[in-house]
Each structure stands twice: as structure tokens, then as C-alpha cells.
Design a protein that fits this description.
By secondary structure, the chain is mainly alpha-helical. It has two domains: 5-34, no CATH class; 43-129, no CATH class. The protein is globular. The protein contains six helices and three strands, in the order ααααβαββα.
Amino acid sequence: MTAPPEELESLLGYRFQNRDLLLRALTHKSLRSESAAPIRHNELLEFLGDSILGFLASEFVFRLAPGARECLLDLARRMLAELHAHPELQTLRRWCLATRDAHGVYRPMGYAPVAPERWMERVMPRKAWAAD
């Protein structure tokens, strides 16, 4: 038997505002095989979390070893390409990222600077993502 989300909130001393997102974060995809109804599981959240963690790790390494810049920029390009290709993210119309000095890396991927200059965005036209 699984513990209710309220028990987790009590242990953490924090009340989550978005109950649906909390339940999704706590639901493993293997539950699909045990349920006849469609289940929203945490696989996409895990994928996004891994990508964000990878990005933060590359930023940390870059600050420790500035000579590794090209390797880290290649890693950033590959992570974004994976995110852009993920099936569950195909309906996203706007992507935003922050960069201090890698505009040239992200511009070929469809990103354009927005104010302030550190931010870039990629806006997909409706026809590129509409399912109908």
C-alpha cells in the first residue's frame, strides 16, 4: 500500500500547491500495467530533471575548467536536441533559455535573443506543432 501525498508533505514540512503535478511526480510508469485507465506518470518529469541537472553540471564544470568550453557547448547542443525531439514535448510552442555568451550556439537551433540579452527563445509556428 502506498502512502498518501499528505504524508510526504508532513515529512517535508511543505504543502505542494499543484496536487496533480505532485501525484504525477510520484507515479512510476509501471503503474500503467496495473490500471485500465490512462495514467500520467513521471517519466517526462524525470527526463526534464535529468536535462536540467546535466546543464547545471556543465555550468559548474565550465567554471572550474574554462578550457573545456567546446566540449560543454557540444553537450548543451545535444541536450537541447534531445529535448526538442522528445515526443511529449512536441506541443510546446515556446522554448526559453538563458545564456551569457553562447548565443552563437543556440541561434542555429532556432533561438533568438530577447530582452534582456541573456535570454533567448525559440517560438514554433502553429503548423509545426498542431496535431490536427
